[in-house]
């Protein structure tokens, strides 16, 4: 009996020891699970902060891109770079909680323009911010730094624009931009006029005449135009169209409702999308005898400024749009001042 009692006591002591070991193991597992859960929370919090930082970088890069294109290594270019950086800093000061740090604003993707030389066409904004961890200190990690960047590029618009059935030569555009008077006029005395077509183009090749020309001028041509392809030339519009051109011009000019105290949109102040802003074909003539045919090189935004003495006056713009097919500006691309900003990184 004594032997049996001793055995029973030994078993009880073994059970108590094992029970204590299990409790220690469970406590260790509980702490480990708690630490892991805490680290998951910290990782999630860092992810959220990273998402917020990315949104800030995207918006700041778009703000800086309003200064593009920027000349490389010129006093004006350096001034525009400084303005771009100031726009980023201004955005962060007004829309951030003060924790984000501006690491840098980089200007990239150079493009050679015949008139302005080497240009930057993209801007990259780099941000970072510290994230204080809630559970990381348990394992000796108090904080981590989240870094994000965004790159915005301006690109040449090459499609899906409402184009007016008017055209000017590349040489004429460049000559007017280099001179003091940058207006393009369309009238019977205009050197752009050939056989009375007043610079007008038959964009669809159907020869629709005055009625079609008027509609395309007022509403914009919505068909496809192939650029820089000798298999897709455009013919000059034939017929007496100047009266229709004046009527269409007056219709679009009077449709402007902006800046009523200043007489509507002008070269000095305008609203994107205003009826006075028209898109005009830039081309090269490839035939010497009628019917004249043109190679379309691209198109450019102009603003209808005035009409007097039966002449139309339009002025070139640098215009950023949010529609249209685009391609990256390269040394083989004609830059006619019609851009779209796009987030590329």
Describe the overall structure.
This protein is an alpha+beta fold and 345 residues long. The protein has two domains: 30-153, no CATH class; 163-322, no CATH class. Helices cover 34% and strands 31% of the residues. It contains five helices and 14 strands. Strands 1, 2, 3, 4, 12, 13 and 14 form a seven-stranded mixed β-sheet that branches. The longest helix is centred in the first third of the chain and has 64 residues, at 2-65. The model is unreliable at 1-6, 187-197 and 322-332 (pLDDT under 50).
Task: For the structure shown, list the relevant keywords.
single chain, alpha+beta, 2 domains, disordered N terminus
Summarize the structure.
The chain is an alpha+beta fold and 345 residues long. It contains 5 helices and 14 strands. The strands form 2 sheets. Strands 1, 2, 3, 4, 12, 13 and 14 form a 7-stranded mixed β-sheet that branches. Strands 5, 6, 7, 8, 9, 10 and 11 form a 7-stranded mixed β-sheet that branches.
Q: Provide the helix percentage.
A: 25-40%
Determine the structural class based on helices, strands and strand pairing.
Answer: alpha+beta
How would you describe the shape?
elongated
| End-to-end Cα distance | 84 Å
Whole-angstrom Rg: 33 Å
Sequence of secondary-structure elements: HEHEEEEHEEHEHEEEEEE
Mean pLDDT: 73
**Beta fraction:** 25-35%
Whole-number count of domains: 2
Number of helices: 5
Largest sheet: number of strands, sense, barrel closure? 7 strands, mixed
Secondary structure: number of strands:
14
- State the low-pLDDT regions, or none: 1-6, 187-197, 322-332
């Amino acid at each position: 009996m004594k032997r049996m009692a001793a055995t029973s006591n030994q078993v009880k002591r073994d059970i108590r020891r094992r029970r204590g070991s299990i409790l220690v193991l469970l406590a260790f597992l509980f702490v480990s699970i708690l630490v892991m859960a805490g680290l998951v929370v910290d990782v999630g919090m860092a992810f959220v902060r990273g998402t917020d930082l990315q949104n800030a970088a995207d918006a700041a890069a778009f703000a800086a891109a309003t200064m593009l294109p920027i000349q490389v290594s010129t006093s004006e270019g350096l001034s525009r770079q400084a303005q771009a950086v100031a726009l980023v800093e201004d955005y962060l000061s007004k829309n951030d909680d003060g924790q984000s740090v501006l690491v840098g604003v980089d200007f990239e993707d150079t493009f050679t323009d015949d008139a302005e030389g080497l240009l930057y066409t993209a801007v990259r904004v780099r941000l970072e911010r510290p994230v204080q961890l809630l559970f990381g200190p348990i394992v000796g990690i108090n904080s981590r730094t989240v870094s994000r960047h965004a790159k915005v590029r301006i690109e040449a618009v090459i499609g899906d624009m409402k184009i007016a059935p008017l055209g000017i030569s590349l040489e004429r555009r460049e000559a007017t931009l280099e001179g003091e008077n940058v207006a393009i006029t369309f009238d019977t005395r205009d050197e752009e006029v050939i056989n009375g077509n007043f610079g007008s183009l038959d964009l669809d090749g159907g020869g629709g005449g005055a009625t079609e020309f008027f509609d395309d001028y007022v509403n914009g041509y919505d068909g496809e135009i192939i650029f820089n392809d000798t298999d897709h030339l455009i013919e000059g519009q034939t017929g007496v169209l100047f009266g229709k051109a004046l009527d269409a011009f007056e219709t679009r000019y009077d449709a402007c409702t902006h800046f009523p105290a200043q007489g509507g949109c002008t070269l000095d102040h305008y609203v994107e999308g205003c009826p006075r802003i028209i898109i005009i074909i830039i081309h090269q003539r490839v035939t010497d005898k009628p019917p004249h045919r043109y190679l379309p090189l691209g198109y450019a935004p102009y603003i209808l400024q005035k009409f007097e003495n039966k002449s139309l006056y339009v002025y070139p713009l640098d215009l950023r749009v949010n529609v249209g097919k685009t391609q990256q500006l390269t040394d083989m691309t004609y830059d006619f001042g019609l851009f779209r900003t796009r987030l590329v990184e």
